[in-house]
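User: Fold this; tokens only.

Assistant: Input:
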Amino acid sequence: MNKDLTMGKPETVLWRFCLPLFGSIIFQQLYNIADSLVAGKFIGENALAAVGNSYEITLIFIAFAFGCNMGCSIIVSQLFGARDYGRLKTAVSTACIFSAVLCGALMLGGILGCGPLLRLIRTPAEVFADSMVYLDIYMWGLPFVFFYNIATGIFSALGDSKTPFYFLAVSSTSNIAVDILFVTAFHMGVAGVAWATFLCQGVSCVLAVVTVWTRLKKIPVQEKTPLFDRFLLGKILVIAIPSIFQQSFISVGNIMIQSVINGFGPSVMAGYSAAVKLNNMVITSFTTIGNGISNYTAQNLGAHQYGRIRAGFRAGIKMVWCLCVPFCIAYIGFGKYLLLLFMEKGSGAALMTGRQFLWILSPFYFVVSAKLTADGILRGISAMNQFMAATFTDLILRVLLVFILPGWTKTALGIWCAWPVGWTVAMGLSVFFYRKASRNMGG
């Protein structure tokens, strides 16, 4: 059901809206976690390394889908808050047309370019073939990734965070079962892992698109709305392009980081692949809550409810810090057992790599979650220059330090220390920009 986020106590509204988003992203992460878990448990350490290696490249394509999601979602949220339903429908169809063209171009680039990219990041010979198989299959499922993201962005813009949760709960748990079936019964190896994700994401995408289109048809308008509008596309791109740059540059940065990690061999690659999946679950959860705060902010901006935006920031900080506590306890206290979920017989080097990564990063979840909450406000009010400045500061610092610190420590341990530094500096910038924007809104 559509929900107006401009009414009700801000803290209560945000909790009710964002918690299903949090649940959705947990199930979304199960796609990638299931791939790595099945690869590591039922195929072997090299297969786990191959899936993790491929995942960093898939994040480039996900970055474009995420940008389209945010551009559509923020503009639709603002129009929904302003009760401008005719232009809302045009914004949705405009975003879909643009996304289809962009997706087609990316599919062509991915099919032709993934092999050279794998060589560029120094993928070891023993995992190259499996990495290539995984990426080839992934490319053909890219339209599902794009249009599922568009659909969930529209649901969120309309204040509905529960419907995407239901879709993901079913499809992600199905993905685990199909992963195991294809790998253990059909002996398809890494290809089975990739095909399982392809099929389950496809079903989820079709259901989401049909549901959101049915929902939009029920919103009354006085006259027939155009399918495409250049002005609305421009407004969407103002949000989408910086979001794409943010996510794609982060992905490129992660690929550069992966190239350094690859130099330490398959055991360190496998340990990092397992640990980064656990870390990404946390960061993506905070990012998704930040996206929910963006929708909340955009609706209230459209309704000129500026005081509710400031109250939303305070409520958002409380929410993400409450979530930090169990993650920190789990990763610091029980990280070994969580990592072993991905490894049938994980080597000592792989296991220690993963534990070091989690020990160093976990305490700083309180820092990065505050940054992502402030970023949610900045995106919602379309303050994209400030948002980009904080994000790129984090990325640039992390990439530079990843290339510098291992030379001092002579081990992979120096790589993991780059994350807390980048997060801390960027958090300071994001909160500064939010406070400055808040004063401009009369706070």
